[in-house]
């Protein structure tokens, strides 16, 4: 951790939701944080509130030129990058038959290609600076299937896979790469979901963005022997299903 602190961190989708919680927690760890998002007003307001500890940068994660500009600004403002959090993501609530081909491609483009592009652009700089940590925000939808969000599920399984490929390639140069798999979390993305969505979980509630940020912070600052692994933060959603003993004859 000592070799990382004081360097820069980039958080995509950092303007709100889980990303904003991660931004706040990394500033508490002495990183200079780039809030990188297409959502300008919220992103700038967050960075302004954090003072010298954060700047906002417009970044569409599917745009390589913008990625290179974001990295240059991060380096110029806070020094070599130590941390990349590929958190930006979108969902399209539509089943396999209903989802339009264009939306399927768009979801995969943002969630999977955008995260891969972040690693493609930033990993050489993190490696050259002596190492660091990359966290890819997958989902429980990268561990199991969900009806009604096929593009999202495809993108999150893909992100889990490319996390392992990157971990294998970058580990020898002291760059750790892990995926985080939240269950339902209270953010604008899930505002359309009923609270009853979480009723079957062992912890029968939605999580909060700070609970995911705490796991990301642990991965960045403490988990020095972890790479290529999945870190689940889902209230037990993927633990299994409870057998109702009333159904046992
Ligand atoms: P959110 O509140 O919708 O925040 C996502 C942020 O990413 C928004 O500011 C969004 O901007 C931005 N974004 C969208 N497309 C982008 C692009 N092309 N380039 C850069 N930024 C872009 O979502 P969240 O719930 O915090 O989710 C954060 C991550 O956690 C996502 O990867 C999501 O899949 C994952 N996750 C969330 C949950 C959950 O229950 N909330 C569960 C599992 C995994 P716009 O608003 O302008 O689109």
Automatic annotation (TrEMBL):
InterPro entries: NAD(P)-bd_dom_sf, Sc_DH/Rdtase_CS, SDR_fam. It holds the Pfam family adh_short_C2. Keywords: Oxidoreductase. One of its GO terms (molecular function) is oxidoreductase activity, acting on the CH-OH group of donors, NAD or NADP as acceptor. Belongs to the short-chain dehydrogenases/reductases (SDR) family. The keyword Oxidoreductase applies. This is SDR family oxidoreductase. It comes from the Bacteria.
